[in-house]
Amino acid sequence: MTNFPLLAAFASYWWVLLLRGIIAALFGFLAFVMPGLTLVALVLLYGAYALVDGVTALFVGGRARAWWLVFAGVLGLVAGVLTFIFPAITAFWLLILIASWAIVRGIFEIVAAIQLRKELTNEWMLILGGVLSIIFGILLLLNPAAGALAMVWLIGSYALVFGMMMIVLSFRLRGLRKFKPVTV
Fold first, then answer.
1. What is the phi/psi pair of residue 13, to 5°?
2. Alpha helices (H) in 34-123, listed in sequence order
3. What pTM was computed for the model?
4. Alpha carbons 32 and 88: distance in angstroms, whole number
5. Residue 41: CB partners within 8 Å, gap ≥ 6?
6. Residue 31's Cα: distance from chain center in Å?
7. In this model, does residue 115 exceed pLDDT 70?
8. pLDDT by residue (tens digit) across 12-71?
9. How far is the C-alpha of 12 from the C-alpha of 16, rounded, in Å?
């Protein structure tokens, strides 16, 4: 039936997608039931990433004698350690970073749309996107607690929908597992 080895592999290991879907859906569900715990888990995951990134930057920077990479590594280690010591403060500053990024990004989108208006039709869509980014950033700054909760719910919604899609896909692939790839 199929000449696609990827499809045959997915069909043979349909249960892996099922497991992946169940875990994603469970994470999404928990994000709604326990948003505070989910936020803490996300912050701690960031802390672990910062530590690993710092160590690798120090290693590569030291080998390459790149002072700026060593500096970035030290900052990564400090950020990682501080994240584990002060997770609530880290969550707040990550939210401030996202809000600031959204505002700056929105301003640049508006500037780009104005500069491109002679070459681009419907530049208003880019302007509208910029305005929405700015509004989003301002709303996060005005109410960071609600912004953090909204961010957790957004991630939870994505995980829940993704998980359900993987579960449905796994059962569809389960029916194809009898087919073997055709070798050429």
1. -115, 40
2. 35-64, 67-85, 87-116
3. 0.61
4. 19
5. none
6. 15
7. yes
8. 888 988 999 999 999 999 989 999 888 888 889 889 999 999 999 999 889 888 898 899
9. 9
| Residues 6+ positions from 110 with CB-CB distance below 8 Å | 126, 127, 130, 131, 134
The single-letter code of the amino acid at 83 is T
Task: Using DSSP, state whether 90 is helix, strand or coil.
Answer: helix
DSSP state of 66: -
CB of 107 closer than 8 Å to CB of 127: no
pLDDT digit string, tens, across residues 126-169 = 899 999 999 999 998 999 888 888 888 988 899 999 999 999 99
Distance CA 81, CA 75 (A): 10
Phi then psi dihedrals of residue 123, to 5 deg: -65, -15
CA distance 102 to 58: 30
* Paired tokens of 132: 């929405």
Alpha carbon 124 to chain centroid distance?
28
For residues 122 and 153, give the distance between their C-alpha atoms in angstroms, rounded to a whole number.
Answer: 32
Report the alpha-carbon distance of residue 1 to residue 62 in Å, rounded.
Answer: 54
10: tokens are 């997915």
CA distance to 47, 138, 163, per residue, from 127 (Å): 35, 16, 34
